[in-house]
Design goal:
The complex is a heterodimer of chains A (about 220) and B (about 450). Chain A has about 220 residues and is of the alpha+beta class. Chain A is built from 8 helices and 10 strands. In chain A, the strands form 2 sheets. In chain A, strands 5, 6, 7, 8, 9 and 10 form a 6-stranded antiparallel sheet that branches. In chain A, a hairpin with a 3-residue loop joins strand 5 and strand 6. With about 450 residues, chain B is an alpha/beta fold. Chain B has 3 domains: about 130 residues, NAD(P)-binding Rossmann-like Domain (Rossmann fold), CATH 3.40.50; about 140 residues, Rossmann fold, CATH 3.40.50.261; about 150 residues, Succinyl-CoA synthetase domains (Rossmann fold, 3-Layer(aba) Sandwich). In chain B, the strands form 4 sheets. A 7-stranded mixed sheet of chain B has the order 9-8-11-10-12-13-14, with helices on both faces. A 5-stranded parallel sheet of chain B has the order 2-1-5-6-7, sandwiched between helices. Chain B is elongated. The relative contact order of chain B is 0.08. The chains are: A alpha+beta (about 220), B alpha/beta (about 450).
Chain lengths: ~220, ~450
Amino acid sequence: MHRIIERALREGRFPTEPECREILEDYGIPVLEYAVAKSEEEAVRVAEEIGYPVVMKIVTAKGEHKSDIGGVLLNIKDKDELIKSFRELKAPMGVLISPMVSGVELLIGAFQDEQFGGVVAFGTGGKFAEVYEDVAYRITPIDADTAMEMIRETKVYRILSGYRDVKARDINQIVKVLVNLSKLVEENPEIREIDLNPTFSLPEGVFVGDARFIL
Amino acid sequence: MLRKMFYPESVAVIGASADPRKLGHTILKNIIDGGFSGKIYPINPKGGEILGLKVYQSIIDVQDDVDLAVIIIPAKLVPGVMEELGKKGVKAAVIITGGFREAGNEELEEQMLEIAKRNGIRVIGPNCQGINNTHHQLCASWPLITLKGRIAIASQSGTVAAALAQWSQNDGIGFSTFVSLGNKSDVDEVDIIQFFSEDENTAVIALYVEGVKDGRRFIEAAKRCKKPIVVLKPGVTERGAKAVESHTKSMAGKDVVFEAACRQSGVVRAKNLEELYDFAKAFAYLKTFGGERVLIITSSGGSGILAIDVLESNGLNVFETDEKLKAKLRELVPAHAILDNPIDLTGDATAEMYLNVFKASFDYADAFLLIFGDPIEGAANAVIEISEIAKKEGKTVVVSFLGGGEIEREEVAKMHKHGIPVFPTPERAAKVLVALKR
């Protein structure tokens, strides 16, 4: 079990997004650049380092959908907007700032099934992921071949293979993410649910944009 | 471990009845009429004689060993009888009686199961329709079906199992063993897969399950199984899953996860009862194929198109015939025949044309779909020859026959007798081809 999960369990809470990202990075799953800010000044400084436009999210240990509770502000263009946003979120545990990117939005996730144990999921991500229902599932552990097979099962695979103005992506990077996620699930069965939506497929690689773990 | 369950040398019918309206009578009668060659012991406290057999008041009174007990008595009396089985050393029991977990009596089922475990008794049911091993002439079930075949049918619904059994009899192909699993208190889908994987009379396992008890064990067993497995698992919708709970108290689980489990363990998933039967029938006699090129030979243009749509939308390729093949075929068929794929021999097709076209186009396709859409005499003989060639060369041939009246009935019966499955619509035959693709 990962030490962060151990600690969260001990403290009777869910891991925060920065903690989830740390776990993901430990398992070789790349996350989008980010920094945590606890004060206005700090927020301004990290936003400038990252470069506008940015995304600002509240840090919470309750595992809720942050956008459902108004905890996500997108496309913040400058310092004034950033300060306004920071005040609006009133986040006691601070905020997480990340660059605003656009790419192919993927849903990558996992959960513990009562009958079959660990399951990983891959498909079309974004706000409407549940409406599109373009998701392939596999029971863990999975190898690279199985990961490839599940990617090929989805419609988003056609987009990732190069569609209209979208350049073809390196599918092997997604394969790696899925195999690593499977490892994370197998080694941490205490995590009931992992939600990495959206994960961005950019021309330079695949990066987790949001992470939520339920214990 | 289940050998004594499915191949017993002696059977006790506990709750045997002289009243022909009672299941305790039907089952005893079916065991006798089915031609069971071992010892049969009717058990009933009233004693006397039923159907010419001496009735024992208790199983304890039976002198010789008893391999299998079939139990048809009120639920509350079952634990007592199980204790007696323990004393007698019976190791296999089929409990037909309902009124356990499915009726809210969890404790009674637990109590029964505890006695079974303590005494090393394997249990099928309770709340089930029994078992029928045609190869052992043991019909401890209803209706009485004796036709020997290759399909093992195991189902959590007695009626679903009986329907498959009935269809297999109507088709003249029969089944190997029928198992009604009921509440699956002990013997479950994993035991079934493990047993029939080794059963010499079974070529395919057809399963209807409403829930899987242990997912990981299911996957392992399915991966190791030496026979193809076809599964129908309902409860796909939320309401359906709820109904599963009240029917057999199973957990339907997430359908997407079960689907993943099937894909990962090579289990063929049927979407409905018709597919469960069709796929089981196909896998009992036909081999899977690699590649995706399918050639359709038909006497009915419409039927050919119906098949194309199913094949093409499921990843198979109904390729266009090239000039070289067309030139070859022109010699063999009437001038008005259509030489594209589907090769439409039209209404005056003869069985011989199918054979000739098949031979001429043999190298062009990985699999063939033969559609007889008219009363074509001699179809069976041609198909038997075609199947022999196909088998030798590792190609798959699927047959559909429709619109052929009395001749169709005769030809289809003949093909089934020769172990060549025939499907009544082009779409069903096409779906079978899709299922057979590796």
